[in-house]
Specification:
With about 80 residues, the chain is an all-alpha fold. The protein is built from three helices and no strands. It starts with a helix and ends with a helix.
């Protein structure tokens, strides 16, 4: 497998002067990439919340009456 570090360092040395000219130290913004990442994360959270809501609606939980619990406790203590 060829060593990629030489080609990466060559590419970086060519891109650094371009980046240094474009970047203003007083004005740094996240740009389009930051917006895309934020939008993807927001869509993922929305999808997870929708899925969780659907699964929680399927749960059929009914609590047993208190009488049943006391009968079970008394029979367990007698044994």
């Amino acid at each position: 497998m060829p060593d990629m570090s030489a080609s990466v360092s060559l590419a970086v040395t060519h891109l650094v002067p371009l980046a240094a000219k474009e970047v203003d130290q007083n004005k740094v913004t996240p740009g389009v990439l930051g917006f895309i990442v934020f939008a993807v994360l927001a869509l993922a959270v929305w999808g997870l919340m929708k899925s969780m809501n659907k699964h929680m609606q399927r749960v059929d939980f009914q609590e047993r009456p208190a009488e049943v619990d006391t009968k079970a406790d008394s029979t367990a203590q007698q044994s």
